[in-house]
Write a structure and sequence with these properties.
By secondary structure, this protein is an alpha+beta fold. It folds into two domains: about 100 residues, Aminopeptidase, CATH 3.40.630; about 160 residues, Gcn5-related N-acetyltransferase (GNAT) (Aminopeptidase, 3-Layer(aba) Sandwich), CATH 3.40.630. About 25% of the residues lie in helices and about 35% in strands. It is built from six helices and 13 strands. Strand 5, helix 1 and strand 6 form a beta-alpha-beta unit. It is elongated and about 75 Å long.
Length: about 260
């Protein structure tokens, strides 16, 4: 791999940026690694980069080395509250492409007001882990095609982006679904994490919008978490998604932070 001297360190050692693999860079001062850079290709074909460095000069050196080797466009994700990191990326030519709000979602039906939600006529909820995989995958493909034709899956969290060879559901057991007759018409994905469960996706077929199905799915998912002793869940919503914003804020979800996706074209 190619190396280059980029700047003088704080001690007597030269500082060298080294590309240690196709997707990794190290900054070494003497015998110490003082910074790292990584590149990863998302399932939708976009190339995301990240840098871990304590000092601005180290960050800039890794960024220069990576940008000289990688094709545009490049993307990265930052916590909007981390102004130093955001500014560091902006100095290298990255600009904001979209914002994602993070929400703390209460599970108590007395707080959310979802305890009195009635299922739409003819709709039943199939609990997580009990859905028929074939029907679930068919619904997933329908919803994905509808989203791609509208806002596009680039507005979705990375974990629900299309996978190679058409694989879109890595773990069907995470999904509860709404069923109407012999069809699945809506789904919600809840992931149990160490600190807090995460609502990764809630979606309904386009021809079943405005029937209260999304609200019923959310009531079922949050109710299950509440009965298990979980006080709150976490979710992210793209700021352009007015329907999802209204759904979560309408049940008392509290905005708690935001993430920026930056791009360098």
């Amino acid at each position: 791999m190619n190396s280059m001297h980029s700047f003088s360190g704080t001690g007597n050692h030269a500082v060298v940026v080294t590309r240690v693999s196709d997707t990794q860079w190290h900054v070494v001062e003497g015998d110490r690694v003082v910074g790292r850079g990584d590149a990863s290709l998302r399932p939708d074909g976009r190339l995301f980069v990240s840098i871990d460095a304590w000092h601005g000069a180290v960050f800039a050196s890794i960024a220069d080395a990576m940008l000289a080797c990688l094709p545009a466009p490049l993307y990265t994700v930052v916590d909007e509250a981390d102004q130093d990191t955001t500014s560091a990326w902006e100095r290298t030519g990255f600009t904001a492409a979209r914002r994602e709000w993070g929400y703390l979602v209460p599970t108590d039906p007395q707080v959310t007001g979802l305890g009195s939600v009635r299922l739409p006529s003819g709709v039943t909820i199939v609990p997580a882990g009990e859905a028929e995989e074939g029907l679930l995958r068919a619904l997933d493909r329908i919803i994905r095609d509808e989203v791609e034709a509208a806002a596009g899956w680039r507005t979705m969290p990375a974990e629900v982006l299309p996978r190679p060879a058409g694989t879109t559901l890595l773990d069907p057991s995470k999904y509860a679904v709404a069923r109407h007759g012999d069809q699945y018409v809506g789904l919600v994905r809840v992931v149990s994490l160490t600190r807090q469960p995460r609502i990764g996706l809630i979606a309904v077929r386009g021809d079943r919008h405005r029937h209260g199905i999304a609200r019923a799915l959310l009531a079922n998912a949050l109710g299950s978490l509440h009965r298990s002793g979980t006080a709150s869940a976490w979710t992210e919503v793209d700021e352009s998604n007015a329907a999802a914003t209204a759904l979560f804020e309408g049940i008392g979800a509290r905005r708690s932070g935001s993430t920026l996706e930056l791009v360098r074209r």
